[in-house]
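Rather than argue in generalities, we have chosen a single entry, letters for residues, whole numbers for local backbone shapes, without further comment.
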Amino acid sequence: MTEENAEDWFELGKYHSSLNNSRNAINCYEKCVAKNPYHYKAWSNLAAEYFQLKSYQDSIECCKEAIKINQHDKKAWLNLAANYFQLNDDGRAYFSFHRASILGSKKAQKFLEKAEKMNDKMLNSEMIDVTSEIFEEKVKKLKEEELKEIQIKKRHIPKVPKTDDANYDEVLQSFLLEIGNTLIINTGGVISILELYSYIKSNYPSFDGKPTDIVDSLKKLEKNKLIEGIKNLDEGNIIIVEFIPSELSSDIKAILEIAAKKDYITYDDIISEKSWDHYRIERTLKFLENKNLAKKVGSYLKGEKWYFPNLNKNN
């Protein structure tokens, strides 16, 4: 089966998964990610198969790979939660179940409801933010690699012949999705196409695609609702890509305005003033936490509060 592309191996893996043949499924998913390391669905399915074999640490590593590529993969978060729960790592399990629930996982929501009814000890633990751990590991790894002068030349997207249009598009889309998640910290999720292309050429010298290749792949990601989309500014003279919704910027301002009036804020404070849904509040607060503008205390069960130590309050 040497001619198959990553998607063929992925589909074959799903077939073996449906037969509960974990070992064959694992073999197929591993071949998939070998051809396309940015196939987050394959990483997520691989994690599920390792979990079935009770290989919890292997499953955790696969979950992390999926989340590094797509932070909104609710299946990967659910798998990660299940692994930590089996290992009695309650703080990480609690955070991961909560994250999967926020992203819309019905299984995670039902698990948390059941855990609350049974007064499970997990709910009495402090959440441990696994997101920061995952991306700190990634940054640390990159810094170690950059100490070797030759290493930068090794960072590249997998070589795929452009004549193989389907596989080339698949690899490039997954690659851009991971790059977008990496750049969110420094750009807020918004960057011009030229800046994005320059960043890729500087950090991934082996990339031989054109700006038009990037634009085409971003449009497909937008169509699949994996990014916010591409917009034209200044009458089309500037093209930007939004990896996260642009309204997030105004949401940050709104929360800071609420926080400026209080010593701390809660979900209820924001809901009472803005009537936002839970996910909108959660993503904005998480962004503020990552920027060290907000500090969360408390737990989901006992009540969460956010402090904003850098705000000047005129109380």
